[in-house]
Amino acid sequence: MSDLLTIADKTFSSRLFTGTGKFSNSQNMRDAILASESELVTVALKRVNTTDLEDDILTHLNHSSIHLLPNTSGVRTAEEAVFAAQLSREALHTNWVKLEIHPDPKYLLPDPIETLKAAEILVKEGFVVMPYIHADPVLCKRLEDVGVQCVMPLGAPIGSNKGLKTLEFLEIIIAQSNVPVIVDAGIGSPSHAAFAMELGADAVLVNTAIAVSQNPIEMAKAFKLAVQAGRMGYNAKLAPIKQTAEASSPLTSFLNA
Amino acid sequence: MSDLLTIADKTFSSRLFTGTGKFSNSQNMRDAILASESELVTVALKRVNTTDLEDDILTHLNHSSIHLLPNTSGVRTAEEAVFAAQLSREALHTNWVKLEIHPDPKYLLPDPIETLKAAEILVKEGFVVMPYIHADPVLCKRLEDVGVQCVMPLGAPIGSNKGLKTLEFLEIIIAQSNVPVIVDAGIGSPSHAAFAMELGADAVLVNTAIAVSQNPIEMAKAFKLAVQAGRMGYNAKLAPIKQTAEASSPLTSFLNA
Amino acid sequence: MSDLLTIADKTFSSRLFTGTGKFSNSQNMRDAILASESELVTVALKRVNTTDLEDDILTHLNHSSIHLLPNTSGVRTAEEAVFAAQLSREALHTNWVKLEIHPDPKYLLPDPIETLKAAEILVKEGFVVMPYIHADPVLCKRLEDVGVQCVMPLGAPIGSNKGLKTLEFLEIIIAQSNVPVIVDAGIGSPSHAAFAMELGADAVLVNTAIAVSQNPIEMAKAFKLAVQAGRMGYNAKLAPIKQTAEASSPLTSFLNA
Amino acid sequence: MSDLLTIADKTFSSRLFTGTGKFSNSQNMRDAILASESELVTVALKRVNTTDLEDDILTHLNHSSIHLLPNTSGVRTAEEAVFAAQLSREALHTNWVKLEIHPDPKYLLPDPIETLKAAEILVKEGFVVMPYIHADPVLCKRLEDVGVQCVMPLGAPIGSNKGLKTLEFLEIIIAQSNVPVIVDAGIGSPSHAAFAMELGADAVLVNTAIAVSQNPIEMAKAFKLAVQAGRMGYNAKLAPIKQTAEASSPLTSFLNA
C-alpha cells in the first residue's frame, strides 16, 4: 500500500520538497517545514552560518525527518557550481546537491549548457545531482544520460507563482523520463501542486508560496494535503475530458410519461 | 478554529458535496461517498425506488452523517421542476432541493429563465432552494433576490471534466454574492476542486470525476484532501502572482568575493 | 466568391462591427471607423445630440457605407429598454436596435431575464433585435425562439480586453445557432478577433480596443485585417491540433546513409 | 509606410516566413507561398533534387521575391548540422542556414547543447545562422553571444498547431533580445500568428498550418493578413487588460431623470 519515492539511496514518504528562503524568521521557517512534513529541504550554502551557531539555519533544521539538500544558488557557471557543490559537501556532510546555475540576474532562469557541464562533472565526483532546469525535454534526456538522479524542470519563472505554464513540455518530460521528475519553481498555490502530481510528476518543490503566505504553517499544511490529493488522483486515474456533456444524474422521464 | 459552512438551518464540516450518479454499483457508491466524508449528497428523484427496498439507493445512503439533497434533474420547465420538488419533499421528507432545469438534451446546460421562475415559487413554498446555473453574475444576484439559499454556478459543461472554464465569472460571482457559492459541474480532478476553493468558493459539488474513476474510493479521498487544501490555502492567503522572478534562495556572492 | 453576412434585410461585406464610445474626439472616431471599413456602427442614444448639430455624433457618421445601430446602453429593465428602443427608432429612423440591459453598475454584465422579456416585446413591435448577452447557450436558443435576428454573446467583461474567456460556451452557441453569432465585449486585440472568426463566429463587435489604442486609425486597420484573416482561416479549414509532433521538413537520412 | 525587418544583409517587407513541407504537390506549394507573399522560405536539403530538374522543388521556388533558407532538418548532432550546412551552401549558393538539431524522433524538439555548439562553428565559418530552439531565454542570450543573426524559439511542439504555449518565456525572450525573434513551430492558425506579432515578435515561421489546410492558398492569404494585423496592433499599442468592466457606451441617465 506504500507509494514511496526513491531517489538514489533515500526513500521518501512525502512528495513535497520545500525550501528555506524568504521566511520572516527561522522559527517560522522551522514550524512551516515541520507542518509540511517535507523530508527534503533545500538550503542555500550562503545561508549556512558555521560561525554563529545560535542563529544558524542548520540548528533549526536539525530534525530526524529532514534531509538537507544544499543548492548552488547564486553561481553563474559550471565551474562555480562544482566549487559550490564541493564546499557544501564539506560543510553539510552530504553528497546531494541541487544544481542551480542562473547567469540571468532578472528572471533567474537556469543555463542549460552550464548545467549539463556541471552535472557531468559532479556525477563523476560521486554527487547525487538534482538539476533545476527549463522544461526542455531534450535537455532532460541528456542530463539523464550523464547520470543525474532526477530532473527538476520549472513550471514558471521562480517566485512568479504562476503555476504550470510549461504544461505541454512537462507532459513530454514525464512521459519519457527514466528518472524522477520534480516540478520546481512557479508553483504558487496548492492547486498547482495537486495539478503537477495529477500529471504524473514524482514530486514538487515549493518554497516561495509557503514562505510569503500570511500564514506559512497553515499554507504548508495545505500544500501537504494538495500533494497527497494530486498523487491519489493520479493513482486512481482521472476521468477523461469530454467534449459533450454527460449528466451524472440520469434523466427522469416519469414527469413526461 | 472551526471553519464551518452554513446553508439554511444546516452546518457542514465538509465543503465537498457529492452525487450518486454513474457509479458502477450501489456498494461502490456508498463506499466512495463515505470515504469522501461528504455531508450533502444529491440524488435524482428517478433513482429513488420506493417499492424495491432491497436495492434502493436510499438504503445505501442511510447514514447519520449524510443529508440527502434531491435534485430535479430531467425537468425542462419551471412547472415540471416545481412538481418534481414537491414529489421529492413527500418522498424524502426534506424541503431541500437542488434545482436543475435543462431543456437542452445535448449539453444539459441550465435554463436561466425557468430556473429563476421556479426558484421564486419554491422559496415561497418553503423550500431551501439550491439552483444549478450558468456562471452568470447577474442571474446569481437575481436568484439571491428571490431568496435562494446558495448559488451553484457551473465550472464547465456537466460531465466534461474540463475544470473552471468560467473562471472570470466565478470570480465576480464570489466577490459579490451574499449567499454561499458552490461550484457545480465540470470539476474533473482534485486540482480543479482545490482551485475553486482557493478562489473563495464556499463548496464544490463533484460527482462524475469520482464515480467514473478507476478507483472511486481513492478518488473520493483525493477530492476530500484537495478541498481541504484549497480551503486552507484560501484562508492562509495565497502568495501574489509576480511578473518578474524572485529567487527563494538568496544569491550567494561569496564565490566571487 | 462573395462571403457576405446577412442580418434581417441588410447584407454586410465587413464582419467587423464597431462602436463610437471612448474615442478622444469625434474626428478620431470617424477616421478610425472609416479605416475599419465597418458597415454597422453602434451608438448610444445618449450621445445623439439633436439640438447641437455642429458637434453631433451623427454628422460625423453620416456616410453611405455606415449603418447606425442604436443601443440601449444604460437601461436596467425590459421596460426601460423598450422605451429606449422606441425613442431611438424615432430619432434615428431605424428599427434596428442593439439590446443591452445591465443593472450591474460595476461589471456592466447583461441581465438574461430582462433581455429575453424586452426582446420578445421588441420583435413583436417590428424591431430587428440584436441582444448583447452572457455566453449562455440556452439563453441564445430562447432568444432565437422569440425571433431575434442574431445573438451577441460576450467574450469577456466589457472593456476588459481579456479576449475569448467564454470559449467553451461560444463553441456550443456557434454549433447550435440558427441566427448569426456576433461576439461582443472583451475583444482586446486583433488576434482575439481573428480567433473568434476562426471559431465560426459570423462577426465581432469591437469598440474599446480600437478607441483607446494609441493610434486608433492604425488599430482599426489591424482589426479589419484580423477579421478577414480569421474568416479566411475558418473558410479554408484550420489544421487539426495534434498531440505528437510532425515535422514539416522531412527527415533527411542521407547523412547517416 | 516602411516597417521593414532586417536580418544580416537582407531586408524583408513580409514578416511571414514559410516552409515547403507537407504540401500535396509542388504546384500547390508554389501557389500558396506566392499567395503568402513570404520572402523567406525554408527548404530541407533532402528535398533538393539536383539530378531531376523537372520536378525539383527549386524550380518551383525560383521567383525573384523569394529567398531560400536551407534547413538542417534531420540531423542529430552539431557535427552533422555543420556538414549539412556546408552541403547546402554548395548546393544552393547561400550562406544562410536554419539550424535545426533534433535527436528526438517523436517530438522533434531541438537540442540546446548541440545547437549552441553548431551555431558557434557556423558563425565562424561565415554563415548567417538562424537557430530553431526551445523558448529558453538563457539559451537565446548565449546564441546571441556567439553571433547568430536571430533566434527562432518554438511556440509549441512542431506540427502540433497548439499555438503559443511558451508565452511566458517568449515574452522574456522578446524583452531581452538584441537580435530579431522569430516564433517557429506550433503556430496553427492565423490568430496564433497575429498573437505572436502583438507580443512583439519580429516575424513568424508557418508551414504545417498552411500546407495541410483544405485550401492552402486561401490559408496562406489568411496568414499574410494575420501577420500584418498583429504587427499593426503591436505598433499601434494594444489597449491594456482591465479587471473591472468599462462600458464603451456611456451610461444614459436620461431615462431616469
UniProtKB/TrEMBL annotation, chains A, B, C, D:
Keyword entries, A-Z: Cytoplasm, Schiff base, Thiamine biosynthesis, Transferase
Q: What class of enzyme is it?
A: transferase
Q: What is this protein called?
A: Thiazole synthase
Active site positions: 98
**Protein family according to the UniProt entry:** Belongs to the ThiG family.
UniProt source species:
Formosa undariae
Lineage of source species = Bacteria, Pseudomonadati, Bacteroidota, Flavobacteriia, Flavobacteriales
Gene that encodes the chain: thiG
Pathway field of the UniProt record reads: Cofactor biosynthesis; thiamine diphosphate biosynthesis
What Pfam family does this protein match (any one)? ThiG
> What does this gene product do?
Catalyzes the rearrangement of 1-deoxy-D-xylulose 5-phosphate (DXP) to produce the thiazole phosphate moiety of thiamine. Sulfur is provided by the thiocarboxylate moiety of the carrier protein ThiS. In vitro, sulfur can be provided by H(2)S.
Enzyme Commission number(s) of this protein: 2.8.1.10
**What does the record give under GO molecular function?**
thiazole synthase activity
Localization recorded for this chain is:
Cytoplasm
The reply on keyword Cytoplasm is yes
Q: Which residues bind 1-deoxy-D-xylulose 5-phosphate?
A: 159, 185-186, 207-208
Transferase keyword on record: yes
Gene3D superfamilies, A to Z: Aldolase class I (3.20.20.70)
InterPro entries listed in its UniProt record: Aldolase_TIM (IPR013785), Thiazole_synthase_ThiG (IPR033983), ThiG (IPR008867)
Query: Chief location of this protein?
Result: cytoplasm
Reaction equation(s) it catalyzes: [ThiS sulfur-carrier protein]-C-terminal-Gly-aminoethanethioate + 2-iminoacetate + 1-deoxy-D-xylulose 5-phosphate = [ThiS sulfur-carrier protein]-C-terminal Gly-Gly + 2-[(2R,5Z)-2-carboxy-4-methylthiazol-5(2H)-ylidene]ethyl phosphate + 2 H2O + H(+)
Q: Which CDD domains match?
A: ThiG
